[in-house]
Specification:
alpha/beta, 434 Repressor (Amino-terminal Domain), 13 helices, homodimer, DNA-binding, 3 domains, six-stranded mixed sheet, about 15% strand, about 350 residues, six-stranded parallel sheet, Rossmann fold, elongated
DNA sequence: CTGAAAGCGCTTACAG
DNA sequence: CTGAAAGCGCTTACAG
């Protein structure tokens, strides 16, 4: 079944004008008389003509395609990012080409190569790493890459993160102020900068208050592993009285394990805090105290970094960091000052 | 910054062969001598050459792009579908171009038009409607469209759904068998065929057992509206003793509202059942009895329908329906036979 | 097997 | 403002 789409040549013949005239009518800013434009548009309408974006891309060298690589779609944070990014980009005439990275394999490279083959104008890597050989290729091709929710050692690319260190620190202070003395941590994937920064900030916050980490488990940013780590951690003789889980996604699983497998009450027996503030965190079932990563502002920053380079304003990689904010809910025992503030109401 | 990617011409010059030879080396099944292939590949490697997919698409008329339109990314079901569909398609050399449909606006048309502009080889509409004028345009262009999790009146397009009617019916039978006598329903968006089919099946199931719907609310497939509907429904003098919520996404919100806003126990005071079986449903917090829509098989069917038409095997629209299966968990009172079965263990 | 040539559907200098 | 022509980077008959 042949694709029977009208081309600019068809429209030109129908309107009795040149093919270039048709092209100009559909090129914003090109010089065409009103008369010509009306005539061409009428013919185009009749034939159902629309410019072939692929052909246009070949000439202009711009595909208006942005490649997005994601791995953790079961973590509510990422669908939210995808939705916001896609909507934001659509509004600017760009579109998102999605690539799933197998969270296991380190070979993002194969996937990235495919993205490059589509001549994308930019790439967003959401919580995913890139090899240096491919990084060079992107650089050579002049394609901007933004690392989303991940930092890097060298500053070759733009990064967009929240202040994970400060966030971890604030959480430590909150738990100490809440009167906790056996404070634990369940880590994300050790290779992630977000994981390292949150932990470093958390430890720094504890140290500043004269405390040390009471226990540590690893959840790898996966809910089942986090639950298992929690069960092990809380089955010991002397169990923690508070735990910071490196992101909300794992924190939910931890709360479920604590409540339903170990019969503990949150926050009476143990306080739980997370990081991200995804939608589920606000639901009564979890009512999770957490650091909010402002996804809207992070997406905004991502688009800015991308467009700055694509539109030639600012080619230099930018390290954008937005503030994270403590959202106090019911999953952690409150410091006295909060209790007092609440009673005053 | 000019894009400094090597072209087939560059490789040809470097290898001292014709440009067509280079092209053949990268065209599976083209006839080239081993010698030629080796030489070209070596040059390509050195220059970092990869065929420009866009240019190839222009000639072949195949972009290997599939457009996916989604609206409800906060419903876990859809990220799951996106992940599976994308992975499956990637494995076959296709890629997914994502378009967010504003769930409010009916103008999917604008978005669809943009998809068509990219010369996609196929379109998947996940829980989203299409106007008949655009439908004709897709037909004329020979582009297969698959309606995912939605039916239609005419059978112009392929559809992939589960057996929503049978699913609704099974749920009714389960609740009646569980000894419930005041059975309510919270509907999804009234315009959706899935909503209508589930409700029709549910009502038919009740009728077959001599019961009628006790109460009905509308949640529009949105969690906040579902929660509000539940609160209103359960604030009446005589409240339901069971409720079927049209999908899991709303069911979680309903459970939260029942428990935390109305202080009811699930399932002691009220049984709750849903539809989909998303991951959250299995978590202890919800432990939701629900009909499983087998997302893997639905994605499978979608890809099959798409490829059948793209590869010219079967151009006719197919109405694919997979079975839904009852997953019994703890959110609804069990019929005696289940209790007996459990005690036997 | 290999190369020269036409052409996919556009945009964009270049003349007029 | 408008048209003829070149060319984006490829694939694919067509000869040899």
């Amino acid at each position: 079944m042949a694709r029977e789409t009208a081309t600019s040549m068809d429209v030109a013949r129908h309107a009795g004008v040149s093919q270039s005239a048709v092209s100009r009518v559909f090129t914003p800013g090109a010089s065409v008389s009103r008369q010509m434009a009306d005539r061409v548009r009428a013919s185009a309408e009749q034939l159902g003509y629309r410019p072939n974006v692929l052909a246009r891309s070949m000439i202009t060298g711009k595909s208006r395609l942005i490649g997005l690589v994601v791995a953790y779609l079961d973590n509510q944070f990422y669908p939210e990012i995808l939705e916001k990014l896609s909507t934001r980009l659509q509004a600017q005439g760009y579109h998102v080409l999605v690539f799933m990275a197998q969270r296991t394999a380190g070979d993002i490279d194969a996937v990235l190569q495919e993205i490059l083959d589509y001549q994308v104008d930019g790439i967003v890597l959401a919580s995913v790493a890139i090899s240096s050989s491919l990084a060079e290729r992107c650089d050579a091709a002049g394609i901007p890459v933004v690392l989303f929710n991940r930092g890097q050692k060298d500053n070759r690319f733009s990064t967009v993160t929240s202040d994970n260190f400060a966030g971890g620190k604030a959480l430590a202070e909150f738990l100490v102020a809440g009167g906790h003395h056996r404070i634990a941590y369940i880590a994300g994937w050790e290779g992630a900068s977000t994981q390292r920064d949150r932990e470093a900030g958390f430890r720094a916050g504890l140290a500043a208050q004269g405390q040390d980490l009471f226990a540590r488990g690893v959840g790898n940013f996966q809910s089942d592993m986090a639950a298992a780590a929690a069960v092990e951690m809380f089955s010991c003789r002397e169990r923690p009285d508070a735990v910071f889980v490196a992101n909300d996604h794992m924190a939910f699983a931890v709360m479920d394990a604590l409540r339903h497998r170990l019969g503990l009450r949150v926050p009476q027996d143990v306080s739980v805090v997370g990081f991200d503030d995804v939608q589920l965190a606000a639901w009564p079932s979890f009512d999770l105290t957490t650091m909010r990563q402002p996804s809207g502002r992070m997406v905004e920053a991502t688009v800015t970094a991308l467009m700055d380079k694509i539109e030639g304003r600012n080619g230099a990689p930018q390290q954008l960091q937005v503030d994270a904010r403590l959202i106090v809910r019911g999953s952690a025992r409150l410091p006295d000052m909060y209790v007092a503030a609440q009673e005053r109401k």
